[in-house]
Amino acid sequence: MSQLTERLNQLLSSTDQSIIQDGGRWYTTRELKGDMENVQSRLAQAGVRPGDRVLLSLPNSYAFTVIYLAVIDYGAAAASINPEMPGYELRAFLNRCKPVCGFAGGLHADALLEDGELQHTLQTVFKVDKQNFGIEPFIRQGSSWQAGFREGGQQLEKSSVPDGEAIAILLYTSGTTGHPKAVGITHDQAFASVQNIIFSHQLTSHDITYCFLPLFHINAQVVALLSTLLSDGKIVFAPKFSASKFWKTVCEENITWISAVPAVISILLNIEKPKQVPVHLRFVRSASAQLPILHARRFEQKFGVPIIESYGMTEAASQICVQSLPPAKRVLGSVGVPFGLELAIMDEYGRKLGPKEVGGIVIRGKNVITHYVQADNQNDFQNGWFHTGDVGYVDEEGFVFIVGRKKELINRGGEKISPYEVEDVIRQLPGIQQVAVIGIPDPKYGEQVAAYVAAGEKGAASQEELAQAILDLCRQSLSSYKCPSKIKFVSEIPVGPTGKVQRIRLKHEVVAQKNWGQPAAR
């Protein structure tokens, strides 16, 4: 039995109070429950069964929340994606995920209904108008789509409470080799993570959070959305972060806590301080990437608001470590202490290391997955531990410090980018002999994407044209944060005996020489 959905239904049935604000309007628990039931009726009409995968392509909104919760409570798996994902990535996602049903708005709704190559396993597409929360069904008929449901079609009955071991959330995390890994988070794992977050952040019915991080990520889904709802708190949604609206919203809506990322904190440090920082803002949580100590110290000095740094990942249903709330001890530079799970530091032979000894970070617990739903291999799971791929140490007091990553994944402001995905796009251009994409240091985002290209004997003018062609193709094929901000032409790219590109070696050489290359044209 799913404690996640049982607890959610208890809260929605026990009161009728404002719970979610979107676009300046507050929605009540009664409205949320009623709208969820309407979506579930649509799922039943579409023949969706428990365990089926349902695509969600919607921006931060009340509509996303309703559909996301309805899908999970129905017993299906919510597979959310960036609603601005280009067609190249959308096609690859559909091939991997194989959803039977999808909810989409804007360009994705049009793409799914117009481009035959994007249909794949989808049998029903619901076109969503997030403004009025209108849902228009389209049923697949061969290679075309028919508006509305079939007359006389069989409607399934919604099953009872989903099983705790059923997958509630399906997300894909970019791998450094091969294809993206499918992370299936069960109801029990999501509920365990929610409980950890509620207790570590001391969330209550008096709390109001401000959610501007993208809901298609695990951070916003579990930390901001599920943890707030299950603690009987309130949520104020924004489509995205806005520096000009931040403090105004915090003040006017009585925001008590915020989940942010280092890039947001960096931006806030460079805008004007409000005349009075509201005392009701208890803390700002930082996650998704390592926060520079200087930024954390400056933020607390400037605004008088505690920064609570944390560490998490999709495979742990978000949170792994977190700093304690004041007045408990916090250590700047640390990501806090493990909360609700076990964490160890191991060497390459699987032996546990002592305090301040640097090694691989491994975890296990009720909120940690035990295998990938789909991956090239399951090597990250060994002897009951999940190997995160991060490198760090634990001090004598139990505070965890991250010093680097084994993986070649690029972390741009919390967005994880696979170099292989970017390289595959660049290789489509004629004249590209070799390409290697790496992350290089960036004071604002932590890392930025740099492409090193071997293109043969070409003059400077030709290189400029090719650089522009690379950028144009990347913009057409990839999300903006994945596009290279630096492009450098080199005579050759280091490879190993088997011809495999040695990205780590290249990165070491680049960092040592500070040879970033030239900014990509904008």
Structure in words:
This protein has 522 residues and is of the alpha/beta class. The protein folds into three domains: 3-163, Rossmann fold (3-Layer(aba) Sandwich), CATH 3.40.50; 182-405, ANL, N-terminal domain (Rossmann fold), CATH 3.40.50.12780; 410-519, 2-Layer Sandwich (GMP Synthetase, Chain A, domain 3). 30% of the residues lie in helices and 27% in strands. It has 13 helices and 28 strands. A nine-stranded mixed β-sheet has the order 2-1-12-11-13-14-15-16-17, sandwiched between helices. Strands 4-3-5-6-7-8 form a six-stranded mixed β-sheet, with helices on both faces. The longest helix is centred in the last third of the chain and has 18 residues, at 460-477. The chain starts with a helix and ends with a strand.
Fill in the keyword field for this structure.
13 helices; 28 strands; nine-stranded mixed beta sheet; 522 residues; six-stranded mixed beta sheet; Rossmann fold; GMP Synthetase, Chain A, domain 3; alpha/beta; 3 domains
